[in-house]
């Protein structure tokens, strides 16, 4: 069993900052990449940022320059530093991992956390 547990969401005013964390635990052999997605009411889930084991990152255009994704490989933890938050950043943020549970498997992107709500409002 693999668990991804997010934390750090909450209510913040426009222009403020939040830091999300996601820790992966359980039967993990190796993790190739971890990512943050978000889903606002009525919208599809979208990629926010992704980071691979070697530190390569990519971001949605809407968050470039404001959000930073980082990772602690030893702790199987990914972070999302969110600055200059806007009301349109309001969403449930989900952690995703591309990992394998044994050395004989291919990497599988189907591991998700339950999400943490970020609300940006004055």
Mean pLDDT: 96
Number of strands: 11
Strand content: over 45%
Uncertain runs with pLDDT below 50, 5 residues or more? none
The share of residues in helices is under 10%
Distance between the termini: 40 Å
Task: Tell me about the largest β-sheet.
Answer: 7 strands, mixed
**Order of helical and strand elements:** EEEEEEEEEEE
In words, what does this structure look like?
- The model has no long low-confidence stretch (mean pLDDT 96).
- Strands 2, 4, 5, 6, 9, 10 and 11 form a seven-stranded mixed β-sheet that branches. Strands 1-3-8-7 form a four-stranded antiparallel β-sheet, with no helix packed on it.
- It is elongated.
- The chain is built from no helices and eleven strands.
- Strand 7 (67-72) and strand 8 (77-82) form a beta hairpin.
- With 122 residues, it is mainly β.
